[in-house]
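Question:
When you can, review this sequence-structure pair and walk me through the tokens.
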Amino acid sequence: MTDIAPLDDGSELCVACGICCDGILFSSVTVTDPSEAERVRALRIPVHVVDERHFFDQPCSALGDKGCSIYTERPLLCHAYRCLLLKQVDAGTMPLADAVRTVEEARRREVEIRALMNLDVATDGTPLVQLYRQFLLDNADQPDCRESPESRELIKRFEHHQVELAKNFEPAMITV
């Protein structure tokens, strides 16, 4: 029987987190190298092509209940990506336990925002930013839709969530 080496803190954080894979930060990942696109397909991740842009959707099809099912063979783009939280853990400026709490807070905010939109937490894997945009569009014809206390609370919490995601995970992330 061979011993499996324990994960370093950064890898442990990635496996426990998955926020870069589940649609919270990104709605898709662009694959710029054609050979990497083939390798991603070989990992059973559907790669789409639109106007010569190769990409795979988020949430990633390799993301399961217990994290990335192909972590050791994950696409090169995934391997190379380092969110701000991971950079802090790797640099030793943030303990792993604090980073995990930050992830848990982001997930809690996501659940609360979905509840404010009267959506199931799972909602078929559609990223929150897409659901939020659709919610605003669907309610645009309602008189004073953005002025009700519920709408103001939703907007306030969503904007706060976006700021926290940019501060802790990805400053260049797409915002509404």
The mean pLDDT is 85.
